[in-house]
Design a protein that fits this description.
Layout lengths: L1 E6 L13 E6 L2 E5 L5 H5 L10 E3 L5 H4 L2 H13 L7 E5 L15 E5 L5 E2 L2 E7 L7 E7 L2 E5 L8 H5 L5 E5 L16 H11 L3 E5 L7 H11 L3 E4 L6 E2 L1
Parallel strand pairs: 3-4, 4-5, 5-6, 10-11, 11-12, 12-13
Antiparallel strand pairs: 1-2, 1-14, 2-3, 7-8, 8-9, 9-10
Length: about 240
């Protein structure tokens, strides 16, 4: 399994960047996790639009789905240019009316992710996070290896068992420790480290980062509570498990 960060920011992208998103590949199958602002441009540095096999949207905040409309047009144009058009599967929860907007003519088709257990080569599990809107953490497994994406969440005890023994925990870390409890629906680097430590995750990768302060402090806070390898996600830097 190969994981490529496409964006690392929460809320909106910094200049020439993208909001938190990841491309996951297994046996030539390409899965995109979240499609917020700047993601579609970043994606094309690694694969073509038509190589994309599936998309997961964790929730319906703009920084996780802003580029879905652009993706619709990309699929429309690319399908017009080929003799072998391809419908792209988009997986998301259906607890919001925006679920229906994910289907676009014959170019994209929405599926309820909570009723899905397999996407290509990946076995899928989901669990609700602690966020102002309904949001899902994602666990993907293939060939005995696993990765957990917390998506957007404040501290939630059930994420420990959900992430148990994962090879990689990709955790949001939108807060510095001093903001814990002051901004709902997000975790600090310190809390991400605690989650990884209690879940016995083999590696911790931090994402969904804030736009102010020195983000290295968030990493330092995570390392104070987690004893294995912790890093900040780097756009384009592949992680192979």
């Amino acid at each position: 399994m190969r994981i490529i960060p496409l964006g690392i920011w929460g809320g909106y992208p910094k200049a020439n960047g993208a909001t938190s998103s990841f491309l996951i590949e297994e046996d030539g199958f390409y899965l995109l996790l979240d499609c917020g602002s700047g993601v579609l441009a970043s994606l094309q540095n690694y694969i073509s639009i038509q190589q994309l096999d599936a998309v997961i949207i964790t929730h319906y905040h703009h920084d996780h789905m802003a580029d879905v409309g652009a993706l619709h047009y990309a699929k429309l144009i690319q399908n017009q240019l080929t003799d072998n058009p391809k419908t792209l599967s988009i997986y998301a929860h259906d607890r919001d009316d925006q679920f229906h907007s994910l289907t676009y003519k014959e170019h994209t088709q929405a599926y309820n992710v909570t009723q899905t257990s397999q996407i290509g080569p990946f076995t899928l599990e989901t669990t609700e996070t602690n966020h102002p809107v309904y949001c899902l953490a994602i666990r993907l497994e293939a060939k005995g290896k696993s990765v957990v994406f917390t998506a957007d969440t404040g501290w939630k005890e059930s994420l420990i068992s959900f992430s148990q023994n994962t090879d990689i925990l990709v955790s949001e870390a939108n807060l510095y420790q001093e903001y814990e409890g002051k901004i709902p629906g997000h975790m600090s680097g310190r809390q991400a480290g605690i989650l990884a430590e209690k879940a016995v995750a083999k590696q911790l990768i931090l994402t969904h980062l804030p736009h102010f302060g020195n983000i290295q402090y968030i990493l330092e806070e995570a390392k104070q509570t987690y004893t294995n390898q912790a890093t900040i996600a780097v756009v384009g830097q592949s992680i192979v498990i």
